[in-house]
Write a structure and sequence with these properties.
- It comes from Ancylobacter novellus (strain ATCC 8093 / DSM 506 / JCM 20403 / CCM 1077 / IAM 12100 / NBRC 12443 / NCIMB 10456).
- Pfam families: COXG, Fer2, Fer2_2.
- Keywords: 2Fe-2S, Iron, Iron-sulfur, Metal-binding, Oxidoreductase.
- GO terms for molecular function: 2 iron, 2 sulfur cluster binding; metal ion binding; oxidoreductase activity.
- InterPro entries: 2Fe-2S-bd, 2Fe-2S-bd_dom_sf, 2Fe-2S_ferredoxin-like_sf, 2Fe-2S_ferredoxin-type, 2Fe2S_fd_BS, Beta-grasp_dom_sf, CO_DH_gsu, Diverse_Oxidoreductases.
- A hairpin with a 4-residue loop joins strand 11 and strand 12.
- The chain folds into three domains: about 80 residues, Beta-grasp domain (Ubiquitin-like (UB roll), Roll); about 80 residues, [2Fe-2S]-binding domain (DNA polymerase, domain 1); about 200 residues, Alpha-D-Glucose-1,6-Bisphosphate, Chain A, domain 4.
- The chain has a seven-stranded antiparallel beta sheet with strand order 8-14-13-12-11-10-9, covered by helices on one side. It has a five-stranded mixed beta sheet with strand order 2-1-5-3-4, with helices on both faces. Strands 6-7 form a two-stranded antiparallel ribbon.
- It is an alpha+beta fold.
- About 10% of the residues have low confidence.
- Helix 2 crosses helix 3 and helix 7 crosses helix 8.
């Protein structure tokens, strides 16, 4: 269990949570904030939408532990909000609700539309609200209510709020940091794209930023051995393009540098094909033969995002004739593909992916030492869907053996 502190509706609230507890359950079960409704639990229906650091977020696919020190506003915290008050009156006037189950999330999303798109047309409102599903009203009353508030605010000279967000993208905790009046601008919640003045721009991939102090939700270790001396393996790892060629499904965009790379990796999970386009920052230490890769990526087709942290160290074996590579892998996966992100399954799949990488690595290292010739045969792609079934079969077999003592 992890002790999690959030600033919820203007009050600091603390409670213990398991790493897998999503924010919706955390608020409902530990703080009795039941206005946040849980529907699909896959980030699709929008019923659980609330506000994190000023931006709407699906709380059913957001881990509570990842929001430590965040500013969270639920529907209960919008009682005195100006826009929410206008929307409540419009919803009543336009008969925009029936059973009410979708209404809390609908109100949060509608408030975002009013603040972010003050000149929105009916079509734009429908598109912006399409992430919230309603089984009762057919959306007609909801759209009329939002349009009427937009019209009222325009007539009154009320435009979008000065702190309304200017772009769409994944929502993180923001970790607002200082909150005292003396802190000035630092007291405002840090946005996903914020950075200190004069700092090198933070790399991002389709709105997924690389954050140096980011902590993975799940971490595990792997190791493998290649039949080549450490100095040769270390030199090879310094060639980013060569390493990328060894990783099934990976391809680079542009020319990588020693410290930064952009590219994509294709992952197939049964009928689903995801192309994660992303970036990574790379650091290496020649003295210890260790390295660190931190990256982020997004697949727009499935609206899934991932962050990853890989650290590795090379150690000699067999009197320096072989090299053992010890790898630590940390990751966070959100969106539709998160349903395939259970840590045990990911570890099994990662093991097979590393196995293919090692096979390609051995072929490449052998080829570089052979004086050229034809390109070595490489494993170019892995279908994770096939791996899922093999993993399940292996686990069932192990379970069967444990029962019968075999």
């Amino acid at each position: 269990m992890t002790l999690v502190t959030l600033n919820v509706n203007g009050r600091a609230l603390t409670a213990e949570a398991e790493p897998r507890t999503h924010l919706a359950d955390f608020l409902r079960e530990t703080h009795n904030l039941t206005g946040t409704h849980i529907g699909c639990e896959h980030g699709v229906c929008g019923a659980c939408t609330l506000i994190i650091d000023g931006e709407p977020a699906r709380s059913c696919i957001t881990y509570a532990v990842s929001c430590a020190d965040a500013e969270v506003t639920t529907i209960e915290g919008l009682d005195d909000d100006e826009v929410a008050t206008q929307l409540r009156a419009a919803f009543r006037r336009e008969h925009a609700l029936q059973c009410g189950f979708c209404t809390p999330g609908m109100m949060v999303s509608a408030r975002d539309v009013v603040l972010r798109l003050p000149e929105a047309s009916e079509h734009e409102v429908r598109v912006a609200m399409s992430g919230n599903l309603c089984r009762c009203t057919g959306y007609v009353g909801i759209v009329r209510a939002v349009l009427s508030v937009l019209a009222e605010r325009r007539e009154a000279g009320q435009r979008g709020a000065s702190d309304a967000r200017s772009r769409l993208g994944p929502v993180g905790s923001g970790h607002a940091g200082a909150t005292t009046p003396e802190a000035g601008a630092a007291a405002q919640p840090r946005r996903a794209d914020a950075r200190p003045a004069g700092a090198r721009p933070t790399a991002s991939a389709r709105g997924v930023p690389i954050e140096p102090d980011w902590t993975p939700q799940t971490t595990f270790t792997k190791d493998f051995t290649v039949a080549h001396p450490p100095e040769k393996v270390w030199d090879f790892f310094g060639d980013v393009s060569a390493v990328a060629r060894c990783l099934p499904g990976a391809s680079l965009v542009g020319t990588p540098s020693d410290e930064h790379v952009e590219g994509q990796i294709r992952v197939k999970v049964g009928p689903i094909t995801a192309d994660f386009q992303g970036v990574a920052d790379i650091s290496r230490d020649d003295a210890t033969r260790s390295g660190r890769i931190i990256g982020a990526g997004r697949d727009t087709r499935s609206n899934s995002a991932t962050r990853g942290l890989i650290t590795y160290v090379l150690k000699p074996e067999d009197e320096g004739r072989s090299t053992r590579v010890e790898v630590s892998i940390g990751y966070t996966l959100t969106g539709m593909l998160a349903q395939f992100g259970r840590s045990g399954l990911v570890q099994d799949i990662a093991g097979r992916l590393i196995g293919a990488f090692v096979q390609n690595l051995e072929a490449s290292l052998g080829h570089t030492g052979s004086g050229g010739g034809a390109e070595p045969a490489m494993v170019s792609e892995l279908n994770a869907g096939g791996l899922v079934f093999s993993v399940i079969a292996e686990r069932l077999k192990a379970f069967w053996n444990r029962i019968f003592g075999r």
